[in-house]
Amino acid sequence: MRHRKFTFKIGRSSAHVRSLLANSVCSLIQHRRITTTLVRAKRIRMLADQMVTLGKDGSLHARRLAIAKLHQPATVATLFDQVAPGFKERKGGYTRIMKLGPRIGDAAEMAVLEFVEADDVVAARAKAQTETSAEAPAEEAKTEEVQK
Q: What is the domain partition of the chain in residue ranges?
């Protein structure tokens, strides 16, 4: 029985799967969003979250581990310098998967895999929303005074 055995079944050799995942994660880091099949997206998400965790560490050892997995030093530099610092306060869940529906040619389930917004962007949006919600009652009071 194969209970609790998670494998990425796409009909490729293990070396090809490793290369496919590494290249997909590099594309995700460079473009911040990729469109792929749902099965691949779920597996890419695992590796991408591991790489962001290494990027948050920021040490030389973590950088070398990331280069060993992804084989693209320039992309790892982007990960460590631009992507990972935005997730310093987040404990996990750096990516999201949004289902798109079946692909036209073979009806494979498609999905968009993207990074969630960085912590500073979320904090700025929350601050802006609280400021606008605080201003709204003051504007309503002014319009009521004018109408009276």
A: 14-116, 117-148
Query: With contact defined as beta carbons under 8 Å apart, do 29 and 79 qualify?
Result: yes
Helix (H) or strand (E) holding 64: helix 60-70
Q: What's the CA gap between 69 and 74, in Å, rounded? A: 13
| pTM of the full structure | 0.80
Q: State the number of CA atoms in the 13 A half-sphere of 45 facing the CB.
A: 21
Q: How far apart are CA 92 and CA 22, in angstroms?
A: 20
Cα→Cα distances 32→24, 25, 109, Å: 11, 10, 21
Topology (CATH) of 14-116: 50s Ribosomal Protein L17; Chain: A, (3.90.1030)
Give the rounded distance of the alpha carbon of 136 from its chain centre: 34
Which residue type does 58 have? G
How many Å separate Cα 62 from the centre of its chain?
Answer: 19
Task: Classify residue 7 as exposed, middle or buried by CB count within 10 Å of its CB (0-12, 13-18, 19+).
Answer: exposed
Categorize the per-residue pLDDT at 2 as very low, low, confident or very high, splitting at 50, 70 and 90: confident
Tokens of 20: 């496919």
